[in-house]
Amino acid sequence: MGRVTLAPRMATMQESATLALNARAKQLAAEGRTIYNLTAGELASATPDYIQKAVATKLSLNKYTPVAGLLELRQAIAAHARQFYGLDWIEPTNVVVTAGAKPALYAALLSLIGPGDEVIIPFPAWMTSYRPLVELAGGSVVTVPLADNYDLDVAAIAAKITAKTKAIIINSPQNPTGAVFSRQSVERLARALQGSRIAVVADDIYTKLVYADNFTPVPKAGFERMVIINGFSKSQALTGWRIGYLIADTDIAQATTSLLSHITGNAPLPSQYAGIAAMEHGDQPPRATLKTLKKQRQIVMSGLESAGIKHNIPEGAFYVFLDLRDLADDAAKWCERLLAEAGVALVPGEAFEAPGFARLSFTADEATLTKAMERINQFVAGEKA
Ligand code: PMP
Ligand code: GLU
């Protein structure tokens, strides 16, 4: 068969680096190698029981649902979000249910961003998909470094605002650092944007996975124009079920519904029932999830201390960001050697536009993490010798 000519937009398009690395680690394990896969952006636990039970009663249902999702689910999401964020304007008409948070992000960006528009993204960030999605929408990405403690640097963001700035993507808790942004910094950003036409896209996918006591979700900070992105992938261990949503003003809700009617149609019907079951459980992670993650975080923190690897202390999500600049001239190559020699898979910082760093996901069980940290320790000692 002859080869086709791909569209120019595919010239720089690559598969999500995090998904590709996770697949590679799983492939190596399937080939019989002992692999400690610390790349995954997903909980290790199975589908929560209450979701399995609820969905089992719905398997005979098979028809299209409204593109924006079942009314019962949109009502539950709206009621929960009104209360969680303290935002009275949220009604079911502001909610669009999607096949994961990614299509919610893409539809929101397509409906907001056009050629010539700029989107500010504080980084390191989940550039893995943020950058391709902004660029597919025709916009360009303007990056602004986070402060050294991984909080927002509002003055640096303000300095990058131009007449072309259309949106700012804010993700807290954050991928890849697990940092949560301080209440002061998000409120300062909200004040800086007052009276402008700039929309904040609040990627809140990790908002229910928080260890800090004083966490302020971004949508609570008083932004005038906002799209909230969320879903059940991370907090309900449902990454493969593809179920997320956005919350926005009705213009954006209608625009994104029209877009999605041509792209995905409705989110998978069983997954929408999973969402309803999650909401009936207060939209909290399954019992013990946070406690387990905290223990796993502790194992990783001590392991990194003894290996002498610089790192932050994550306050949310399930990632820690390793600063490898003192250990390696090329951190991506260091990660390759770590995988080849020690069987430990991390995600190099390049995926987050932060060369010199690597992301470690601590969702694996305690035994796996303990062993992986031993391997990392031995590897670092061996490299120094
Ligand atoms: N936002 C962030 C910050 C993420 O890490 C992810 C992980 N995939 C997503 C959005 C997308 O989530 P989903 O799997 O629901 O599409
Ligand atoms: N967001 C997750 C991660 O960063 C899942 C992978 C992906 O969607 O790219 O690992």
Walk me through what this model shows.
The protein has 385 residues and is of the alpha/beta class. It contains 12 helices and 13 strands. It has helices at 17-30, 49-56, 71-85, 101-112, 127-136, 154-159, 183-193, 250-263, 269-280, 289-307, 331-342, 366-384; strands spanning 36-37, 95-98, 118-123, 140-145, 165-171, 199-203, 226-231, 244-247, 310-311, 319-323, 344-345, 347-348, 357-361. The strands form 3 sheets. Strands 2-8-7-6-5-3-4 form a 7-stranded mixed sheet, with helices on both faces. The chain has a 4-stranded antiparallel sheet with strand order 9-10-13-12. β3 (118-123), α5 and β4 (140-145) form a beta-alpha-beta unit. The longest helix has 19 residues, at 289-307. It is globular and about 60 Å long. The model has no long low-confidence stretch (mean pLDDT 96). 4'-deoxy-4'-aminopyridoxal-5'-phosphate binds at residues 41, 100-102, 126, 171, 175, 203, 205, 231, 233, 239, 244.
Tell how many strands the DSSP assignment holds. Answer: 13
The percentage helix is 25-40%
Which runs of at least 5 residues are low in confidence (pLDDT < 50)?
none
* SSE ordering: HEHHEHEHEHEHEEEHHHEEHEEEH
Bound molecules: 4'-deoxy-4'-aminopyridoxal-5'-phosphate, glutamic acid
Overall geometry comes to globular
Task: Report the major sheet.
Answer: 7 strands, mixed
Order of strands in the sheet with most strands: 2-8-7-6-5-3-4
SS-based structural class?
alpha/beta
Provide the β-strand percentage band. Answer: 5-15%
Helix run count: 12
